[in-house]
Amino acid sequence: MPRATPPQARPGAPAGTPVATPAAAPAPAPAAKAANPNLPPLVGPAYVKGPACANPSALGVSRTVLIDTSGGPGFGFEHFKQHDFLKPGEVVLTFDDGPWLGNTPAVLRALEQECVKAIFFSIGKHATYYPDIIKQVYEAGHSVGSHTWSHVDLSKKTPDEQKEEIEKGISAVKAAIGQPIAPFFRFPQLKHPADAVAYLGDRNVAIFSTDLDSFDFRIKKPDQIVKRVMDKLAKHGKGIILMHDFQHGTAQATPMLLAELKKGGYKVVHMVGANGLQSMAQYDAMIAKNEKLPTAGAGRPTSSVVRTIDQ
Ligand SMILES: [Zn+2]
Hints:
Elements: E1 61-67, E2 74-75, E3 90-96, H1 103-113, E4 119-122, H2 124-129, H3 131-139, E5 143-146, H4 159-177, E6 184-185, H5 194-202, E7 206-208, E8 212-213, H6 216-219, H7 222-236, E9 239-244, H8 248-263, E10 267-273, H9 281-290, H10 302-305
Parallel strand pairs: 1-10, 2-7, 3-4, 3-9, 3-10, 4-5, 6-7, 8-9
Helix pairs in contact: 1-8, 3-4, 4-9, 7-8
The structure holds zinc ion.
The site of zinc ion (ZN) has 5 residues, from loops.
């Protein structure tokens, strides 16, 4: 059986670029099956390093791990019994459902203050509402993955509908940040229909569940959110934490949570995709159509443009 298309060579980056290219390209994973020629290959890289840390006593990122997403690995032991790579005391911060006005920038400021990096799973529609905000997330050095186009429960959709939700989500986030996005995906409500899981595997996208669900969308009170996460951490010792930058309570809780993590001696691990995820042209076109573009005659009243002449 022929190998899957190996990851493409990284474009030669001039010295001093903010791209955190590892010293050596990762070895391609053994291919389980031939790559689907109808799906775009991964390209690299999918993240930038972000600005230097300005806070000498910051929590900081203890290590950055490069994820080869060939074949669609699963992370988060709530659903996937794979890849136990975190050491005791290590956490990965993840934020879903943004970008959102006010809350996402507040989360960003808190992360910047402590010089930590996270994964953001953006809803495609929200990325079209606030493209500048999700672009700021990307430029700050966080991994920006996707979380479907409109946050529907994919287990209630046909395989074609699942594909459209996934791809439009990818296209929308890509259009907002202007780069291939991180090859990371989280299912709405952590519902994992088999067809969609298989499709993401063909697409070489990693699927994220969680180890520590904050239930912040239900708790809402910042101090209670922090307590919930820290109690779970005390029990499990490490893990991928699920929160929502969409939620006001989470925006308020994030600085407190980071302070508690620092106090507790926990370490933040940053997960980055070894390669970026390309969008597909047909879904890019759907997103472009979705955006309401200005036209030369935009100032005219509708009554002068549209008149009923026969009824
Ligand atoms: Zn969600």
